[in-house]
Every structure is written in C-alpha cells, then in structure tokens.
Amino acid sequence: MIRVVSSLVVALGATTAALATAPHSDFKLSLSSMPAKPAARQARVRASFAASSSRLAARDTTSEPLFDYFNGTDLQWYGDISLGTPPQNFTVVFDTGSFSLEVPGTACGAACANQHQFDPSLSSTFEDEQFNTTITFGTGIGVDPVVGNNWELWLSFVADILHVADMTIPFGGFFLITNQTSTFAPDPMDGIMGLGPDASDLFETGGYPAIFGMLFVPETEGGAGELTLGGVDTTKFDGPLLFSPQQGSGNWALSSRGIFVNGQTASGLQKNLTLIFDSGTSNMLFTKAIAETIYGMISPDIVANPDEPGTYGIACDLIPTLPAVIDITFAGVSGQNAFNLTIPSSELSSGPFRNKPELCQTLINVSEGFNLVGLSLLKHYYSVWDIDNQRMGFAPNGF
Ligand SMILES: *[C@@H]1O[C@H](CO)[C@@H](O)[C@H](O)[C@H]1NC(C)=O
Ligand SMILES: *[C@@H]1O[C@H](CO)[C@@H](O)[C@H](O)[C@H]1NC(C)=O
Ligand SMILES: *[C@@H]1O[C@H](CO)[C@@H](O)[C@H](O)[C@H]1NC(C)=O
Ligand SMILES: *[C@@H]1O[C@H](CO)[C@@H](O)[C@H](O)[C@H]1NC(C)=O
Ligand SMILES: *[C@@H]1O[C@H](CO)[C@@H](O)[C@H](O)[C@H]1NC(C)=O
Ligand SMILES: *[C@@H]1O[C@H](CO)[C@@H](O)[C@H](O)[C@H]1NC(C)=O
Ligand SMILES: *[C@@H]1O[C@H](CO)[C@@H](O)[C@H](O)[C@H]1NC(C)=O
C-alpha cells in the first residue's frame, strides 16, 4: 500500500523533512527508530531477550509462510507476527510500499471488530510512546477505487517486543490502530508491516542481514507464499537472480529502460521511468499517458470506466482472446546486462466490476504522478529486496 500525505495531526519534528521530499510516502518512523528508553527498562527487556539472541545470531535466514487473500482475484499476501509478553498474535501484509507497523489495538473497538486487537494491559513489556497520528493510503487492500481519505488509520505510537518468524526485535516501535475507515473492516488480515528500503535497523536489531526474499503464488497455482528474512530461499526459484539498482530513497524503486507490449514498443514507452515496487498493491499504476499507450496496444476495446475514476475495463468475454504480454526492461547492476520482467496475459483482467459485471477491470490503474508495479508482476518472480546493497533481484518462480 502506498501512503499519501494528507492529515498528519502531530508535528513530527525532524521527520517532517522526509515528508516534503516523499510525495507518496509519509514520515519514516521505522520499526526500531524508537524514542530513547530509560536505561533500567532497556536492561530489563534485554535480559528477557538474551536467552534467545545467541541462537538467533547463529542463523542466517528465517522464513514463514504467506497466505493469499483471494476475493475474485489475488489481492494481498499476509503472514503471522506476534507482539508483546506473552505474545499476542496478528496477521499482517508485509508491505514494501510503507515504513511502519500498524495493528489494531483494543481502543479501536467496534471499528476493528473483525480483526485481532492488541491489548496493552496484557503485555508486561508494553510502552506507550504518547503520540497519535493518522495515515492515509493511496492504494487500498483490493482493486477498488481509493476515494479521498477512504483508506485511513488513526494511530497511537507504542513499543513492545516484536517477533516475525524467528526474528525478535526487543524494542519495536509500532502503531496501534485506534480507529479505521470501514474499507478495512472486511480484510482477513489484522494489520500492515512496512518493509521499505531503509528498514536496515529492523534487521540489525533482529540479528539478521538486511535483506529479504518474497514468494507470492497465485490462487490458480495454490495461493501460497513465503517471506524469508536475512536472505533468500534458493529452493523457491530456478536460475540466477538478476539484480537492478535501487533508485533514490524512500520507496523501493527501479529504473525501467522501456516497456514492450506483445513484443512491440512505442515512443511514449521508450524512456527511463522510475517504477515503485509495492508488495502491498494488487495491480499496477501508471500515469495516464503510459497507461493509455499500453492499453491502446493491447486493444482499442479497453476503455476508462467513469464510474470508478482511474480504472479501465473491457468486456469480459473478450479477455480470453487477447494477448497482453507486458515486458519491462530494467537496468542491470554494474557489470550485469539489462533484463526484462514479464507480466503474462493472464494478469490482464482483475475480474468484473461490481457495478458492471459484464465489464472486467484491467490491470493498470491511472495514478498521476508516479508509476508502480505491484503483485501483478511480483507473483511471477521470486523477488529479493536487498537493503544492504540497495538493489532488487528477480528470478522466475515458475508460476
Ligand atoms: C500464536 O502463534 C503461535 C505460533 O503459531 C502459537 O504457537 C500460539 O499458540 C499462538 N497463540 C495464541 C494465543 O493463539
Ligand atoms: C491517543 O489516542 C488514544 C485513543 O483515542 C487516546 O486514548 C490517547 O489519550 C491519545 N494519546 C495522546 C497522547 O493524545
Ligand atoms: C486509481 O487511481 C486513481 C487516482 O489515484 C484513484 O482515484 C482510483 O480510485 C484508483 N483506482 C484503483 C482501482 O486503484
Ligand atoms: C472512527 O472513524 C469514523 C470514520 O471512518 C468516524 O465516523 C467515527 O466517528 C470514528 N470513531 C471514533 C470513536 O473516533
Ligand atoms: C469479497 O468481496 C465482496 C464484494 O465483491 C465483499 O462483499 C466481501 O466482503 C469480500 N469478502 C471478503 C472475505 O473479504
Ligand atoms: C525485452 O523484450 C522485448 C520484446 O518484448 C525484446 O525486444 C527486448 O530485446 C527484451 N530485452 C531484453 C533486455 O531482454
Ligand atoms: C536512460 O538512462 C540511461 C542511463 O543513464 C542512458 O544511458 C539512456 O540513454 C537513457 N535512455 C533514454 C531513452 O533516455
């Protein structure tokens, strides 16, 4: 999910500089960038953590399964974390498009009735950091329109022990959701855990190299997935990983050298573009000119759906006959050739529009100002998010 800056209600001091330079992300309170802790408290929590830390230090990677939230189309993958002492369990989207962890707290009450809610009073290691804020997202959980602030969380900043797979963060700063818009209510997962390109503190604190691997298997192939922290799971892909350098800071982003549709290109597609890679967005977002050029090359029958601004669709019965292979060329890291990542024709449709079931929504949504590839592409590759080396790697996952 990509955050939009709109309604931060708390002055964030030094972090407001990040706001000004990151148009579609918000401030960068990473999970372990905690306010200073009283020394006695640190010692106490560290002692409770010491027993496991030597075991963790001996390990290179730790993995956990991901589950596909499929509702007509693949929407999101999510997995387990736990927080507090004793641990309270939650499911979260591991979101490369955001930077912090949010889970519902008991203060959310009825608005979070379908999700697990963290109860601070049950955790002996909990700490309230005493400030509140909000986050607004620019892409939601599904493929439905984001309208104004209809994906918004009200948050309270807190800290506690965090476990993800076998990684433990003894002082994790995170947000408890105190209220949320109703768009979040039907989601099967509880929260969101941001894994942006500057999450190195998280891995250092947890005792793992700052790199993670992700596998997203589409529902049609079983709907599984895996998150590996500290490295990659080489059993989940064949062939070499091809790496491209991270562009800029803030979001995971690569420089594309050009886009091809069914092997053809067009002048509007042969240019350098910065593409954000977001594991928390189901489909793809391009500026209008690029989206309409790509759509024009697939079929003149793909048209904007005015009922849901920014979306496009085509008569569902035309989908099976349409080749719509999209190749995107990326620069290789130094010494490596450029390479293509390919989105197969099977991604063209994200299923019928709710209010116009004969019209199927197509995979690219228009978003002025930035270009983003989400799970439509990521579910066909094993992806490596290499924080230490500021690069991303890909190898076909066979799906
Ligand atoms: C939390 O998850 C762990 C690991 O899956 C499990 O062993 C434990 O029973 C769960 N705790 C609760 C309260 O559900
Ligand atoms: C934050 O919000 C919670 C829930 O609405 C409230 O109980 C708490 O007092 C607020 N904290 C601050 C520091 O404003
Ligand atoms: C596409 O983006 C536009 C502009 O940001 C937004 O209004 C629309 O709701 C989005 N639609 C989807 C399907 O994400
Ligand atoms: C929670 O947010 C909704 C808007 O989604 C608002 O109508 C409601 O009043 C809020 N509830 C509280 C307790 O602030
Ligand atoms: C699936 O989508 C439908 C609308 O198409 C919605 O009403 C329902 O709540 C969703 N189900 C789940 C489990 O999210
Ligand atoms: C990418 O794919 C296009 C065809 O769609 C092809 O012409 C081009 O050579 C490929 N580029 C690389 C680097 O493989
Ligand atoms: C894209 O950027 C590369 C590297 O900076 C440069 O060599 C190439 O000429 C650029 N291509 C276009 C079409 O601007």
From TrEMBL:
Keywords: Disulfide bond, Hydrolase, Protease, Signal. The keyword Transcription regulation does not apply. Residues 1-20 form the signal peptide. It comes from the Eukaryota. Disulfide bonds join C108-C112. GO terms for biological process: proteolysis. The active site is at D95, D278. Residues 77-395 form the Peptidase A1 domain. It holds the Pfam family Asp. One of its GO terms (molecular function) is aspartic-type endopeptidase activity. InterPro entries: Aspartic_peptidase_A1, Pepsin-like_dom, PEPTIDASE_A1, Peptidase_aspartic_dom_sf. PROSITE patterns: PEPTIDASE_A1 (PS51767). This is Acid protease. It comes from Mycena venus.
